[in-house]
Phosphoesterase
Amino acid sequence: MMKLMFASDIHGSLPAAERVISLFEQSGAQWLVILGDVLNHGPRNPVPQGYAPAQVAEKLNHYAAKIIAVRGNCDSEVDQMLLSFPITAPWQQVLLESGRLFLTHGHLFSPDNLPPLATGDVLVYGHTHIPVAEKRDGLCYFNPGSVTFPKGGFAPSYGLLEADRLSVIALNDQQVIAQVNINP
């Protein structure tokens, strides 16, 4: 059974990136899925604690062979020059036995602007910095929240897919924030 870990909106925070890497190593996940906004804090965000984009890139590059990433609205070609794994695709797909995960940052495709999806598919996105794990109208929606700039009163968080269950988990205390089963 495939196990995936999801992180979104690192925004160049070295402490957040180090925590994600530590949790990835402990998780037993085969892949670390990064849902964009990797290195740059962006013009609407404050400079995060431990802002060190070059060091974040260096840390993540050690795991390049195990990272699947998509481009966020704060990612650029200059960021790609620092990273050993591709981040310029606006979306990726992961095929599961029961459907697919459509991976995107959330600024182009989102619950309000869906890509072509089939019943049973999962839209996995970041961008809003708000955790989501729910089913609606035959689709599953999953947002692991943000590891650096959580919003909506939530703790910094990440996601896991294990045995057809998607979970949003608090980065620091490992409490489950939200869960949804992909299959009925």
About this structure: The chain has a mean pLDDT of 96.
